[in-house]
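tl;dr need the bound structure. longer version: we got a ligand (pyridoxal-5'-phosphate) that a collaborator sent over and nobodys looked at where it sits. i said id run it. heres the input, straight from their email, havent touched it
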Amino acid sequence: MTETATDRINLSAPWIDERDEELVLEVLRSGWLSLGPTGPRFESMLADWIGVPYAAAVSSGTAGLHLCMRLAGVGPGDEVITSPYSFVASANCAIYEGATPVFADIDPHTFNLDPAAVEAAITPRTKALVAVDIFGYPAEYDELLPLCERHGIALVEDSCEALGAMYKGKPLGSHGHPAVWAFYPNKQMTTGEGGAVTTGNEDEYELLVSLRNQGRLETSSWLQHGRLGYNYRLDDISAALGVGQLEKLDRILPARREVAALYGELLQGVDVETPLADDADHVRSWFVYVVKLPVGADRSGVMERMAAQGIATAPYLPSIHLQSYMRERYGFSEGMLPVSEDCSARTMALPFHARLERADQERVVEALRGAIR
Ligand SMILES: *Cc1c(COP(=O)(O)O)cnc(C)c1O
């Protein structure tokens, strides 16, 4: 770094304040660090905030997705359809239960599953569909849900990037099927590590609560386990942080929206495709700010030139089917999912969080403008 190098601008940053510290400290001082009162407090706040009857907190979004595979009865020999343009967890959850992930291609602008491609991927072995609301943009549930019903397929929503998003006027999570949330520090709100599954179905909720706690039966006495479960509990320290985050979520989300809107303005005239705007049916919750570079652009060169100015970016997202373990295990290769692969080659995440300052956003955009040229 030269002397003129300015401060580094990071990709993401959680919003942690004194209230969060206070809540965490309260739990620490209570001595009740797990299976205490703060877990249920967090869960009922989360369910209320989203507007769903039940929320089961878990140790991560990945754990939540795995439990949803158990809810759907996914097992060896089954196929689970999902999006290749996602975080690996949305496909891995099927593999954990011995099923085969089947990828359907995406829409090049929403980056979400193309319902026609999903339909074409259905076989007699298809057991579940994991639809992802990628980058906080709602997937097309009015098309996916009837498709699943017609074919007897369970629908699981990976809404890990979409807390606060709305589809057709209703919040994600409230459309009937189970939805999975994640609270890793780069998400809209954080518990450190953590996640949740929401559902409107009491039986599903009870099964989730049992499965996350080693398969313990609701009715059983101490250490009676009725089924194979996991330790996917969220501890009370993390839940306390979650309470603090939920208390300010109605400030965090608009702040993220404003940062996104300013990027939209600043990027006018820069040769990139900016994220799809909301419409009446789709209201995004801003998770990351991803731009698509023009065909033939040298993305790694652009990233290097921005990094030299202290600006973090990420080649976001790689297509899951081209990850080395996926290629080795299933023989997937280039050309299988051309839309996803093209997006993966050209999309790039810019620094983005609720408290990113205007001056930093201007620096990011100027650096990008220069780096593309
Ligand atoms: C963050 C995320 C998850 C879950 O991540 P964890 O780190 O396990 O909490 C799952 N799917 C998507 C699309 C995500 O972005």
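gonna send this back to them w/ a short note. The chain has a mean pLDDT of 96.
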